[in-house]
Amino acid sequence: MNKRIRPWHRLLALAIGSMVFAVCAPTVVQAADPPTLNSLAETTTKLQISIDTTWVLLTGFLVFFMQTGFSMLEAGLLRQRGVVNALLENFIDAAVTILVWWGVGFGIAFGTSAGGFFGTDTFFLSQLPVDGVFPMGTVPGIPSQLNAYTLFFFQFAFAATASTITTGSMAGRTDFVGDLIYSAVMGGISYPIIVHWVWNANGWLAKMSFHDFAGSSVVHSVGGWTALVGAYLLGPRPGRPAWGIIPPAHNLGLATLGTMILWFGWYGFNPGSTLGTGNPGLIGLVTINTTIGAGAGAIAAILYQYFRSGKWDLVYCLNGSLAGLVGITAGCAFIAPWASVVIGLTGGILVVWGIDFVESLHIDDPVGAFAVHGINGMMGTIAIGLFGQSELTLNKKAGLFLGGGFDLLGIQLLGIVAICLFTIAFAFLMFGGLKAIGHLRVDPEADRVGIDAYEHGATVWPDVYAVEQFVEEEEKHRSQKPGVGTFDSE
């Protein structure tokens, strides 16, 4: 028979339990292994990898967000009849790139090197362990302890940028199927080959200590030169004004928003390329140089254009900031802040000259992509050979203007020439092939009615009317019977 447990019995049981715990607890604590130097080092390493992973993912998200910036910039600078096309191309480029980067791009870029020219494995990520960690903790070709999947995503965000640069230069008259094809080819073949040369530890330019910290040559020169070739083979947009007169922008508010998003995203592009937080001083230097380069570029462009036209030009100011950002991207980790001022100012002037130069060639580049990315990507890469600090460069050699001679400058010149020649040849082959099969330029009817209407059956302002159209619509609705969505206040 069960009896009710009296309260004092409970108190006695608690007292006995407390005594046992008090006696045994020190023994349990002493039974645990005391920390050792090895265990502390292992814990510290794991913590550092966790912090670095968070850092690289967050900066990778910023780089991916730059797709929004490019979309808004292009939408603002284009004519209204091509905005939907530009928005869709920017959006779908990211979708196409992630698939081809997964399939072949990442393997060509960072797989086992074939003579320093391209990777031969890791296609479809098939050779990665399930957890993405290699036996030595590193991805082949990348000296980092980070998880392979983290590095894959970060590098994908860069790959998406290269084809998006090209989209801007070819906007308003490119066949949509052709855009899908060239975006896939760039993300899967041409861009990864250059990545392998420069950012794979076994690439032939990497072994020569070619310097490009975050992509002035690898991303921007590749995107810029590909864009120029594509725009040349496409021909001009229909109905554009005479050469030397820049067609008016559709929406300067969107263009400004897009540029500010790009500037913000560049803090993922450049500081994120440290691939870790182990050297906070380097992250600070890269961030400061990036900001100074953008500011100097904007100031130089707007002042120079004012002296030419007597007007404070917003578009040139925006492109000037982007030119400064592109120019500083290669050397942001290898130069002192004063040099970033020089690079930014130079970029701001070059972008104005570059736009004039492209116009003089009768090539229609709606957003100035080659002037911003192609010309200043080359300038920023070469600038390392002039202003590189021996304390910061990979081979501990200074630039020409700092007493280092021509060694570093010679390597930079060799690298940028090789990258540009390969990119130009590949672009002519790629776009020439698209032209041959009828998928480079849209049908002539699209030139007549507008690419948005022809290719997408849409307009960026579907519910905006002129006053006469609005009155006509109102009268039409009043003459019809009330239905769903109508309201009569009388």
UniProtKB/TrEMBL annotation:
Membrane-related topology note: Multi-pass membrane protein
Main localization, broad class: membrane
Gene3D superfamilies: Ammonium transporter AmtB like domains (1.10.3430.10)
GO molecular function: ammonium channel activity
Annotated Ammonium transporter AmtB-like domain residues: 55-459
Residues in the signal sequence: 1-31
InterPro entries, A to Z: Ammonium/urea_transptr (IPR029020), Ammonium_transpt (IPR001905), Ammonium_transpt_CS (IPR018047), NH4_transpt_AmtB-like_dom (IPR024041)
Keyword Transport on entry: yes
PROSITE patterns reported for this sequence: AMMONIUM_TRANSP
Parts of the chain that traverse the membrane: 55-73, 94-118, 146-168, 180-199, 219-236, 248-269, 281-304, 316-336, 342-358, 370-388, 408-431
Protein family according to the UniProt entry: Belongs to the ammonia transporter channel (TC 1.A.11.2) family.
Record-level GO cellular component terms: plasma membrane
Subcellular location: Cell membrane; Membrane
Highest taxon above the source species: Bacteria
Keyword list, A-Z: Ammonia transport, Membrane, Signal, Transmembrane, Transmembrane helix, Transport
Gene Ontology biological process: ammonium homeostasis
Protein name: Ammonium transporter
